[in-house]
């Protein structure tokens, strides 16, 4: 499920997990620890900016990276 927010696509934890080949719970832990930033939906679900996910996937530093 890809959600459009302005021009930025938002990915679900499951979609991010499949890109990194990890469990969705791992993606949730990354978000909780600040390794990747997330957006909360009104229902409390996490969504991730596709551009940031792609940058991490390619080993590029992002603004939220410590």
Automatic annotation (TrEMBL):
A family per Pfam: HTH_17
Domain HTH merR-type: 10-57
InterPro entries found in the cross-reference section: BldC-like (IPR048048), DNA-bd_dom_put_sf (IPR009061), HTH_17 (IPR041657), MerR-type_HTH_dom (IPR000551), SinI_DNA-bd (IPR010093)
NCBIfam families found in the cross-reference section: excise (TIGR01764), HTH_BldC (NF033787)
Protein name: BldC family transcriptional regulator
């Amino acid at each position: 499920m890809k959600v459009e927010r302005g021009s930025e696509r938002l990915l679900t934890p499951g979609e991010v997990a499949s890109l990194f080949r990890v469990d969705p719970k791992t993606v949730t832990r990354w978000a909780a620890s600040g390794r990747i930033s997330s957006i909360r939906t009104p229902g409390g679900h996490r969504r991730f900016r596709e551009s940031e996910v792609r940058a991490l996937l390619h080993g590029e530093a992002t603004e939220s990276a410590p």
